[in-house]
Amino acid sequence: MAGQVTGIVGPNGAGKSTFLRTLFGDHAARRGSLRLGEEQYSPAHRRKWQARIGFMPQDNGSHGGLTALEVVLLGSIEHLSLRLNDVALRRAASVLDRLGMIDLSQRRVETLSGGQRQLVYFAQALMREPAVLLLDEPVSALDMRHQMLLMKQVREITRQRRIITIVVLHDLNLAASFADRLIMIHDGKAEVDGIPRDVLSSQLLERVYGVQTRLHYDPDGRPWVHVHDANEVHRAV
């Protein structure tokens, strides 16, 4: 839904990344169809479909030799000519500044830390001015502070621009804090879909993840997952 963040959660190998690649049009769906507004996806018009989507996959490639600013500018490559215009440069600089990365704009991307690169690729996805934002584990290499910074930006940008945002997250507590709704994927199918309080239950988490948990709730009703049986975690791993 426009203006909302949907979190995709589930164990390793459940099909979360495949789900995002299918939405982007890089993976063929076995059944069903994709529709955005009045437009329905077809392989013949894949580039037109993807032009409306900002996709940040897990593996973005190295882009060796390019600066952070140049990598961000690639996000609007459809609109770039052989000569960069001031509007594109200002937009790229503004996105980097919003993420606290402007001081690193002239650094070659391969010299950045893994977390810094993730922020650069998130900025690249935003440069497309997408109607849909697909983010595959965008916080996996970030420390706690930058996880919160990026997810706050995801939520604010989603609401300000009224876009559809779908983000894969492993941290259930982070997902419950920032997602308006969650989809739990297990063995390639959606187990449950709803608001975090309805999706996250001790019974479901034990069945899907093989761990015992306790659920706590903040004053707004957001659940907080606490794993309390270390032996169960050891056996599940």
Task: Please tally the helical runs, counting DSSP H or I stretches of 4 or more residues.
Answer: 10
| Major beta-sheet overview | 6 strands, mixed
- One letter per element, helices H and strands E, the order comes to EHEEHEHHHEHEHEEHHEEH
- CATH class category label: Alpha Beta
What is the second-level CATH architecture?
3-Layer(aba) Sandwich
Helix content: 25-40%
CATH topology: Rossmann fold
When the domains are counted, the total is: 1
The geometry reads as globular
Beta-strand fraction estimate: 15-25%
Distance between the termini: 35 Å
DSSP, total strands: 10
List segments where confidence is low: pLDDT < 50 over at least 5 consecutive residues. Answer: 232-237
GO molecular function, one term: ATP hydrolysis activity
Keywords: ATP-binding, Nucleotide-binding, Plasmid
Protein name: ABC transporter ATP-binding protein
Domain ABC transporter: 1-212
What features would you describe in this structure?
By secondary structure, this protein is α/β, with parallel strands linked by helices. It has one domain: 3-Layer(aba) Sandwich (Rossmann fold), CATH 3.40.50. It is built from ten helices and ten strands. It has helices at 16-24, 46-50, 68-73, 86-98, 114-126, 144-161, 172-178, 196-199, 202-209, 230-236; strands at 4-9, 35-36, 39-40, 53-56, 132-136, 164-168, 181-186, 189-194, 213-217, 223-227. Strands 4-5-6-1-7-8 form a six-stranded mixed sheet, with helices on both faces. A two-stranded antiparallel sheet has the order 2-3. Mean pLDDT is 87; it is low at 232-237.
